[in-house]
Write a structure and sequence with these properties.
about 425 residues, alpha/beta, five-stranded mixed beta sheet, five-stranded parallel beta sheet, 16 helices, about 45% helix
């Protein structure tokens, strides 16, 4: 993986980072790296996520999913960190025409009914994921799907794989019905769990190379270094942090690959939930190249100077040439490779932003394969942890998210608490 920060420097961009600012940042990166390495060595909460490439047991995941390996469709029932990694991985890596992967994260009845009506439930595997085992959306959707299976005469216990923490209602239910169950690894917050059973179960059922993904992540782990100039992940994190300090409070992530569209959503959770604390944090924005060049680029080039634009592409793509057309006016397109066209569009966006002095960073994978994706996911997690260290926030907690989850639970359980009172006040 390569990270090009040239267009984030003061010589090109405003806000941009001067060489002196980068040198000062580099000293801080060295100290942050020491802290991160200590956390990894001691398996401390959160930092332990950066050890997943070597602690995740791919074989145990393959064993757990063996009973549902014949599935036509995998339905992941989970939300937030218990869904976005899985969706990102299968979107990027699944072979065309094979088992499909559907995520039921939201509890929109219209959507859930439609998804269920389109499934052949006897050929469906249910992948229920909840670290806490108490999330209302996940448990409700699971009970709805389970009921649909019962009504269709399908033995749901034969079609369900569970990933959860040691305790909680989901663990108890899995135990009661003797369901294949994988543990959420210790010390790993949901949004940092993509490289564990939390993110890998559907990929394993779909036949993706999860070992290759973990190898790629392990290779990225090897690149962590005390200097941002030697480590692509830290270069990205340090520049994002430095630019935020200079006013770039939005980070627009623009993958130039359809298969990476869900990556932008995964990144948005990682960045927002980890770094949005103490009045700080870049707001992640999601876009897709080249599609959003025809909409959002106007704002990114000429709007408020409060953005870092992160452009992302695989260097290698499959080729698909534009065929000949009858009109002379279209002759220039004949024989053009669509991948080359997409890359040209990226370069045009980059140049357009640079010409307007708008900071942007290019992140490149060699190719969009298991190894490349593993490197990318790991590098962005490491970048995020680094930013958290530099900003001095509690990267691995999510009190605002927990507040809402608890309030919803209190309402559903009929408890009168400060949170339910706050909700009621709002409605008066
Ligand atoms: O990252 C997080 O902590 C959250 O997004 C959780 O993953 C999300 O709320 C789901 O929680 P759980 O896995 O406990 O169902």
């Amino acid at each position: 993986m390569n990270v090009d920060i040239g267009n984030a420097l003061a010589a090109v961009a405003e806000p941009g980072l001067s060489r002196d600012e980068l040198a000062t940042l580099d000293e801080r990166v060295a100290r942050a790296h020491e802290r991160i390495e200590r956390g990894r060595t001691d398996g401390e909460f959160g930092y332990a996520a950066l050890n997943l490439p070597r602690t995740t047991d791919a074989e145990a995941i393959r064993d757990a999913v063996a009973p549902v390996a014949d599935a036509e469709t995998v339905v992941t029932v989970g939300i937030g960190g218990s869904a976005l990694g899985a969706r990102t991985i299968t979107s990027a890596l699944a072979a065309d025409g094979g088992t499909s992967h559907v995520v039921l994260d939201n509890v929109d009845p219209d959507h859930v009914s439609r998804v269920l009506s389109e499934l052949s439930l006897a050929e469906t595997a249910i992948n229920v994921v909840s670290k806490s085992g108490t999330t209302a959306e996940t448990l409700s959707n699971f009970l709805v799907v389970r009921e649909a299976m019962v009504e269709a005469g399908v033995d749901w216990t034969e079609r369900t794989v569970v990933t959860t923490g040691d305790e909680g209602p989901l663990a108890a239910l899995a135990d009661e019905h003797d369901l294949p169950t994988l543990a959420v690894p210790d010390g790993v917050p949901g949004r940092f769990a993509a490289l564990s059973s939390v993110g890998l179960v559907p990929a394993a059922i779909l036949g993706c190379d999860i070992e290759g993904l973990l190898d790629g992540a392990a290779a990225a782990a090897e690149t962590l270094d005390s200097s941002l100039f030697e480590c692509p992940a830290y270069a990205y994190g340090a520049v994002a942090y430095g630019l935020e300090e200079r006013g770039a409070t939005i980070n627009a992530v623009v993958p130039y690959a359809e298969r990476l569209e869900p990556f932008a959503e995964w990144f948005a959770q990682l960045w927002a939930e980890s770094l949005g604390k103490d009045g700080r944090g870049q707001t992640p924005a999601r876009a897709l190249g080249a599609t959003d060049q025809h909409s959002q680029l106007q704002l990114y080039r000429a709007g408020r100077r409060d953005k870092l634009v992160t452009l992302l592409r695989p260097r290698e793509r499959p080729s698909l040439d534009v065929p000949a057309a009858e009109a002379d006016a279209l002759a220039h397109l004949e024989g053009t490779d669509l991948g080359e066209l997409l890359d040209t569009e990226l370069r045009a966006t980059e140049a357009s932003l640079a010409e307007a002095g708008q900071p942007n960073v290019r992140v490149e994978l060699d190719r969009l394969d298991p190894r490349g994706l593993g490197e990318l996911l790991y590098a962005m997690e490491a970048a995020c942890v680094l930013v958290g260290e530099l900003a001095g926030v509690e990267t691995f907690t999510q009190p605002a998210v927990e507040w809402g989850k608890q309030a919803a639970r209190d309402v559903l359980e009929g408890d009168e608490t400060e949170k339910t009172a706050a909700i009621e006040d709002k409605h008066e």
